[in-house]
Amino acid sequence: MREYLPLDDLLELSCEELQLSPALHAAADVRYNAVARWLNAERSPLRDLRPAIYPQGSFLIGTTTKPIRQNEYDLDFVCQMQLDHSRCPALKVLQLIEDWLRENDTYGPMVEPLKRCVRLNYAGDFHLDILPAAPELPANGTRIRVPDRKLEDWTFSDPKGFGAWFRTRGSQYLLEKRADAEPIPHYQSVEEKNPSSAPCSLRSAPGTCSSGTTPIPRRARSS
Questions:
Q1: Cα dist from 191 to 20, 76, 165, 194, 199, whole Å
Q2: Residue 168: what pLDDT?
Q3: Closest Cα partner for 37 from 180, 183, 184?
Q4: Is residue 24 within 8 Å of residue 31, measured between CB atoms?
Q5: CA Rg value for the chain
Q6: Is 17 helix (H, G, I), strand (E, B) or coil?
Q7: Is 0.90 surpassed by the pTM of this model?
Q8: Residues in Cβ contact with 181 at an 8 Å cutoff, skipping those fewer than 6 apart
Q9: pLDDT(80) > 90
Q10: Among candidates 182, 181, 64, 78, which has minimal Cα distance to 125?
């Protein structure tokens, strides 16, 4: 007689297949911190802007999934600099980060400019999307400004605010502190994840999110 798995077990197995493996998560952690150090290197033109590096989107909230029809995971992080966005053209900031990444022998061949970010393509595993950002002026919570090539201007975003909102939908997890970059969340099995993460991972599986910014949450959708 054929034995059927309960629905919860099937969903758990599906999520395990979709999410980053422990090995890929460890590799992402190493590369994320290596890029953060390059952006904040002594010779970096960004150094005087005191860049703060932190993960965003599915990378932050633990819902990263492997897209259908391609082998790479999409991992996003923010490079927030202390600059006045009203005095600094958005496209100039995007170009500044792109040019500095091209100065690196390792990252140069990986660089791909996108609408709101600069992508580093790691063959076969994942790509890192680096989103430049500036603080909102006057300060408005965790809201930031990010560049947009199509608009040729700055636009609003709030990846930290979205992450905080998402974590209130389930159990919270803690982030450790490091000198040069906020850490990516620790690897979690499906059982350990925020209860909101697994459904979002499954919803994300059929396609990929754009490499732009995380929208500012307005209200919680019913689960």
A1: 14, 24, 21, 9, 13
A2: 78
A3: 180
A4: no
A5: 18
A6: helix
A7: no
A8: 32, 33, 36, 37, 53, 54
A9: yes
A10: 64
Tokens representing 216 are 């500012």
- Give the Cβ contact number of residue 214 at 10 Å: 23
pLDDT in tens, 200-220: 554 554 443 333 333 333 433
- Give the three-state DSSP class for 59: helix
What percent helix, strand, coil does the chain show, rounded to 5? 35, 20, 50
Quick check: 88 and 94 in contact, CB under 8 A?
A: no
- Evaluate the CA torsion angle 98, 100, 103, 105 in order and state its sign: negative
**DSSP-assigned states of every residue in 143-172:** -EEEEETTTTEEEEE-HHHHHHHHHTTS--
Which residue did the predictor score with more confidence, 185 or 51?
51
Q: Count the Cβ atoms, other than its own, within 10 Å of residue 111.
A: 18
What is the pLDDT averaged over residues 65-70? 62
Paired residues of 75 in beta bridges? 128
Q: The tokens 């996108």 sit on which residue?
A: 114
**Measured distance CA(124)–CA(9) in Å, rounded:** 29
Domains detected in the chain: 7-204 (3.30.460)
pLDDT digits (tens, 9 = 90+) for 141-184: 999 999 999 999 999 999 999 888 887 775 444 444 444 577 76
pLDDT above 70 (res 118): yes
- Structure tokens that stand for 177 in this block: 């502190």
